[in-house]
Amino acid sequence: MTTYLAFLRAINLGAKRVFPKEDIRRVVGGVGFEDVETHINTGNVRFASRMRSRERIERTLEDAFLADRGFEVPSIVYSAAEFREVARQMRELAEANPGLARHYVYLLKDELTPERIAEIEARDDGRGRMVVRGRAAHALLQPGYQDGTVDPLSAAKLLGAATNRNANVIGTLAEKWC
């Protein structure tokens, strides 16, 4: 059995997209995944499966979530080994960029083309920059980046299906689950 981590996008953001972690555990276990755990109520779930196809796991989760909730829940899945590498890269980038105000990691459903990566990484404007590594895009934000916008580098729309977590959550999950 392989351990996987799934990151659910756009849940618990309002009254109509509520998906408590107890229900997430129930649904994930209900489709046959084992050793299911969740972390905080933002859609972080760990489980074990004999399935090997990430795409098949994502489809299985998304179909089950839609059936249970009545709305789509995009799910981004990493093996524990893949996620450990994301956390390692996050630490490496944090060490190479001391003094960051924020470090967000966008977890991507699919790898990006080289052209799209170049477009995203060109968004350096003094408030911060984006660095793409595989299926993770790191927003490295400098002090003073807060200008009232959710996406100060206007890069999120270029990432495809993705969800983000801050560096603290990424580090905690890697330590706890990988």
TrEMBL record:
It comes from Microbacterium oleivorans. This is DUF1697 domain-containing protein. InterPro entries: DUF1697 (IPR012545). It holds the Pfam family DUF1697.
